[in-house]
Amino acid sequence: DAGITQSPRHKVTETGTPVTLRCHQTENHRYMYWYRQDPGHGLRLIHYSYGVKDTDKGEVSDGYSVSRSKTEDFLLTLESATSSQTSVYFCAISGDTNQPQHFGDGTRLSIL
Amino acid sequence: EDQVTQSPEALRLQEGESSSLNCSYTVSGLRGLFWYRQDPGKGPEFLFTLYSAGEEKEKERLKATLTKKESFLHITAPKPEDSATYLCAVQAYNQGGKLIFGQGTELSVKP
């Protein structure tokens, strides 16, 4: 398995609270991605990073922010969580854009 | 708009009964088409990358093929351990490595 650790694995929180999800990699890969997976929508890209402090938006970025201060860590923050952000969140990594992405085992987030 | 459609949504097979999964796509300049396997409670596991029409890749009982409009994942003599959701994704040029995923095909193989 690619060295990807997501934390926490499960979280339940209330609407309006801030939430931060962490993705940690041990592969020294340049690219890191955050996706969400929902029934009926499949996996959708939220944000991605192409280097330390270099990030860009994906197709469903509203309500989310990211930060990457070290090569190995990519944080996803929900500043004020809403029920529509209840989902399973996956982190992925790749060495370059022409290499396959490898995924972590996800964080199941429930917002009540 | 780049788009991926997978069919069928669900497929039930008997052990040993071969079949195919379909992935139809529209993309502005295909850089690569990817197949993943996803088990319940786990992240997608990479299977294959296909880059050009006519290309084929094989791994055990799985074979992936690619045309200009679709890809097929052929499963020969499946076993119960092949049960999973199979995801197809496309990547376009000049998109920073972004993947556009289909909704997946849930495969169940009964002994």
Please outline what is shown here.
The complex is a heterodimer of chains A (112) and B (111). In chain A, 0% of the residues lie in helices and 58% in strands. Chain A is built from no helices and 11 strands.
Shape call of chain A: globular
User: Which percent range fits the helix content of chain A?
Assistant: under 10%
SS class of chain B: mainly beta
Averaged pLDDT of chain A: 95
Radius of gyration of chain B: 14 Å
- Beta-strand residue percentage of chain A: over 45%
Indicate the topology.
The complex is a heterodimer of chains A (112) and B (111).
Chain A lengths: L3 E4 L2 E4 L5 E7 L5 E8 L3 E10 L2 E4 L6 E7 L2 E6 L8 E8 L7 E2 L3 E5 L1
Chain B lengths: L2 E5 L2 E5 L4 E8 L3 E9 L6 E6 L5 E4 L2 E5 L3 E6 L8 E9 L7 E2 L3 E6 L1
Parallel strand pairs in B: 2-11
Antiparallel strand pairs in B: 1-3, 3-8, 4-5, 4-9, 6-7, 7-8, 9-10, 9-11
Explain this structure to me?
- The complex is a heterodimer of chains A (112) and B (111).
- In chain A, the strands form two sheets. In chain A, strands 2, 4, 5, 6, 9, 10 and 11 form a seven-stranded mixed beta sheet that branches.
- Chain A is built from no helices and eleven strands.
- Chain A is globular.
- Chain A has 112 residues and is mostly beta strands.
- Chain A has strands spanning 4-7, 10-13, 19-25, 31-38, 42-51, 54-57, 64-70, 73-78, 87-94, 102-103, 107-111.
- In chain A, 0% of the residues lie in helices and 58% in strands.
- The mean pLDDT of chain B is 96.
- Chain B is globular.
- With 111 residues, chain B is an all-beta fold.
- Helices cover 0% and strands 59% of the residues of chain B.
- The interface between A and B is medium-sized, with 27 and 22 residues.
Overview features:
heterodimer; A: 112 residues; mainly beta; 7-stranded mixed β-sheet; 4-stranded antiparallel β-sheet; 0% helix; B: 111 residues; 6-stranded mixed β-sheet; 5-stranded antiparallel β-sheet; globular
